[in-house]
Known about the structure:
The protein is α+β, with helices and mostly antiparallel strands. It is built from 10 helices and 19 strands.
Amino acid sequence: MYHTFSEIGAVWGHQYGLEVVNYFAQSGDPTYEGPTFRLSNAFDAIGREVEAVRKNVRINEIHNFGKYLISGPQSRIWLDKLLAGRIPKVRRVALSPMLSAKGKVIGDFTISSLKNDLFQLTASYGAQAMHMRWFETHLSNGVNIENISDKRSGFQIAGPNAGLLLDACTRDETNDIDFLDVRRVKIGHINCIIQRISYTADLGYEIYCKSTDQYDLWQILSREGEGIGLKPFGMRAMMSLRLDRFFGSWLSEFSTDYTAAETGLDRFISFKKNVDFVGRDIALAERTNPFTRRLCAFIVEADNANVQGYEPIWLNNVVVGFCTSGGYSHWTNTSVAQGFLPNDEIKDGLLVDIEILGKLKPARVTQFPLFDADGSRMRQ
């Protein structure tokens, strides 16, 4: 896709060794994003892409996901022991943390149940080596694991008209694909796996195919989407969109330094399942013994610089926490941060200061998403 995207204005960045599009430059936009801790010179271009997702539909590559195929007669049982969350029924999707024996988060996975004994897992592309080591260390008979990160690629389509676009691209029935469904669908001549989920916090679908079919899939989607103004969007817009519902990201909100309870991933742990999954004892203990810190979201009174990560959080003239990530929510015109605070201090509206580039900026804790607070847009 490099040459195709370059021809339509792609401004490239990189992520875990992959080239990824930061944004698409139109007439008058900068074709090089200058490095800075302050507002990007591509600020307006990024905002335009965010608005287009929220109002229509846009398309983005999903090559930068780590992807694994888990198969075999014991695969469901094995996953149930390895992952802390619920393993979904066939043709359903679930989210789950993977914990170490010490209860630390070593992965946040999307589990797609294609058959009773066939699953696709997706996670951070940059964590492949760690995840494969963990899988192989815990491998048991009757389970096969294949890293298909570079064999399977595709696109996500997101926005209120995403369903309209999908329906126009296939003869298969797609109107009955509910939130967190996964389905095999043929788009043109291409066999695809489609799951209804999106990191943009909007109505969206992830469409997977063989990497060798990706260009043909692009041709079909772009042709059918031309009538409704379909265009691609980049990772800068993606990272702005996820802030609207305070979605976390790997190595920022989620990492091996934190537990599921600290980060809020414990809501995806299935304590009801009668399985001694890895890390269960520690996760259970955190339910009864209060943990000392928890991840929060903040609205920041920033000016020309937003939170990047690891900025100190001040309360009553004392540093009490730190930021994990942040940025600008273009859709709501709000500077947003996420970070850890002492558990006994957290309440909605708590006023703190966040130190950004050496200056204290007022901020307040918010416990309510800035967009689609009840999730109805994602589930519509």
